[in-house]
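TODO from last week: model GNAT family N-acetyltransferase.
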Amino acid sequence: MPALQGRGVGTLLVGQLQAKAAERGMPIELSVFRINVAARRFYERLGFTRTQDGQTHIGMTWYSPEREQRGT
């Protein structure tokens, strides 16, 4: 929804999802269109890393900081 872009709504929603995933020790996986550079930067800013490269999509994954510290 373009009217809501730049207002922090997406950051808030993804942050809540990350908190729930961290509680459960689960990663978050998603994909974005390769040409959607703004979305890729948004998710990278929130800690997602590129995990798959497809012809039209890029797979991204987020792991909780606690998981990264444990090395699992």
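Done. The CA atoms of residues 13 and 44 lie 15 Å apart.
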